[in-house]
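Handout, page 2. Input:
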Amino acid sequence: MSLISTAVAFGVVTSFLGQLKAHFGLDNAQVGLIGGAALWGFTISIFILGPLCDALGMKFLMRFAFVCHVIGVLTMIFATGFASLFIGALIIALGNGTVEAACNPLIATIFPNDKTKKLNQFHMWFPGGIVIGGLFAFFIDNNIMPNDPHAWQIKLALVLLPTLIYGVLFIGQKFPATERVQSGLSFGGMVAATFGRPLFIVLFFCMMITASLELGPGRWMGEAMAGAVKEVTNFGNAGILVLVYGSVLMALLRFFAGPVVHKLSNTGLLTVSAILGGSGLYMLTTVHSAAAIITAATIFYVGVCYFWPTMLGTAAERIPKGGALALAILGGTGMAVVGLVTVPLMGLIADNYVRTSLPATETKAALAEIATSYSMMPKSDDITAARKSAQDAIASGDPSEEAASLRAAVKAAPDSPAGIQAAALLKPADEIGTVMSFRWVAASAIILVLVFGILYLRDLAAGGYKPEHIGSTAESAASV
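Output:
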């Protein structure tokens, strides 16, 4: 239930990033920062609390997660602009990271001989929660509150339901000591085992890319697929259907991951995943029919579904003395890079393509209409700002200012003829920009294929993938 809260938050935030642009007059870069904060805040809590899991106790961590989920959601719901949206998203992410900081070592402790399989099955509830949040968001947008500027607040409130449930369920529960504590390994020994293994350094850098490939596009899936999906359905915000479909597929595959993992080995599975993930993401930028959308989405989600839990499982099985520290660093690093780099960078890439995709003649005409018509509207801060922005953009001819001016016009008077015209110009440009950002992320899979392929070949040369246990001679061997 706590992981469902994390995933529902991810799903519903993804569904309304575009709505925040219109409601608060934000640009793609600001939206990327909000979407990113909802991810990299995860890193703060997991980096700080993960290594202290034994000292603070899992019960304390779960209570802290509960408080963060409640306060973060309420802060965003009652937000008045970019700053409060950003802070609320950050607090939610602190709760999300705390859930992972407590639950990943808990799973590894309860199932010491089946870590990768059980971590995959536990993490099925991340895509499972995205399905719940995504379907709820889709239903709100298309049936309950279509075109309602406050629909995003209702969607976000859904996070509170599983949060209240897990808050009650954890009351009175007793948590075991972690595997590291039970074995008598010191904290210093855990640190040395983590950073003293070359394999951990390799996994550390690969986690940045696997997390970016899996989670970065998810933040922008609704917008990137909007144009393609509209050719085969009449639903608004139908791009969320792609995210829901992929999440269902990932949940099922993760639950039944055991046989696949044991047949391919972890490194073999990661190699295949990188090939499919990169190929599928690129294909998603080229599709325009229902069959092509389903095919590309299937390849992409089959590829990325095993990344996160298998990376954690590999660390838990091959570097068991790393304990909660190794798991916290990997999970925190993945979310940090996605939140601080990948999602905002995708927004910047999208903005760059928006500027080059706006039709010059139509844009200049729209700006002239905004400058003229908004001067005759009742005065307000938004109207004044939009008119001045249009005048400045006309004078400078800077594509960056032109795009910002169109967004300001939509925010100030979305139902006016000039506001409608500005939105019509921005929409296809936004779709092109987001699609192009997907292609940049897809290219990163090439690095993963090379690295995981080398690790897989090394395992074959050594007789196959072999999990290790605390106290085994293999763990102390000076090898990757």
